Amino acid sequence: MLQDSQMFLQAAVDAAYAAGKVALERQRSLGSIRFKGAKDVVTEADLECDRLIRERLEKAFPDHNLLTEEEGSSDKGSEYRWYVDPIDGTINYAHQIPLWGVSIGLARGGEMLCGAIFLPALDELYTVVSGGGAFLNGEPIRVSSVTDLSHAVISHGDFNVSADDVERQRLNSENFWARMRTVASVQRVKCLGSAAVEGAFIASGRLDGYWMVYLKPWDVAVTTLLVREAGGTVTDLSGKPWTLETNTALFSNSILHPSLLASLDWDRRRVSPESP
């Protein structure tokens, strides 16, 4: 099975490199940018890269299911499903902020097998195979060794992430108060604007923790496996095991996970830190 996973991984790497090259070239002249809902955007590069990746994977594995951010799902009844985010961090990409990436991963029966994250602006390729470790540009990586929460640098997902006005306001409030409950306990709190980047930075030890209050499976399918194979822990924000159906996530270096869960105190997510 590991040999098959390596074959699948190579397909993901090749597609991620190809899409990343297109995205970098397109970034010089973005073309039209349209809104998806009130606060999110999609560029021509998102659509072009989505099509490029889909075409490559469908040609190589015609029986596999695919789920991509821009073109949705194709279900062929296979136990294999690809999860694709052609440009994770589109807002960053559209604003020339170099924190964005291409994320491509494969699951079998709901369990991630392998994946690749390519950060073109940084020229960093993260690869992972279940049971085979996590790598950055071919070198093994590990999560950080920070043991004291007060020395931790953590990050969280963006605000304004839902297309629904009511849900967006609720999520903004929950994210805000989670940040307020946590900020005094840690060294710094960041928000980098890309789950692929932030998950990769957890796996490579650059960040110590990262949470998201709203996600889709293509956002973190690969980063979840990457962080775990690098020695980290991933759960939902209540501490329950993360699955591809989970809509919140907490990534950490494992050592800090219990204290981060306690600090975030997700069950009080609509309550200010001063409330009883």
Commentary on this structure:
With about 280 residues, the protein is of the alpha+beta class. It folds into two domains: about 1-140, Fructose-1,6-Bisphosphatase, subunit A, domain 1 (Fructose-1,6-Bisphosphatase, Chain A, domain 1, 2-Layer Sandwich), CATH 3.30.540.10; about 150-270, D-Maltodextrin-Binding Protein, domain 2, CATH 3.40.190.80. The chain has seven helices and 15 strands. It has helices at about 1-25, 45-60, 90-95, 165-185, 195-205, 215-230, 255-265, and strands at about 35, 40-45, 65-70, 70-75, 80-90, 100-110, 110-120, 125-130, 135, 140, 155, 190, 210, 235, 250. The strands form three sheets. An eight-stranded mixed β-sheet has the order 4-3-5-6-7-8-9-10, sandwiched between helices. Helix 1 runs antiparallel to helix 2 and helix 5 (about 195-205) runs parallel beside helix 6 (about 215-230). The chain is globular. The mean pLDDT is about 90.
How would you concisely characterize the structure shown here?
The chain is α+β, with helices and mostly antiparallel strands. It is built from 7 helices and 15 strands. The strands form 3 sheets. An 8-stranded mixed β-sheet has the order 4-3-5-6-7-8-9-10, sandwiched between helices.
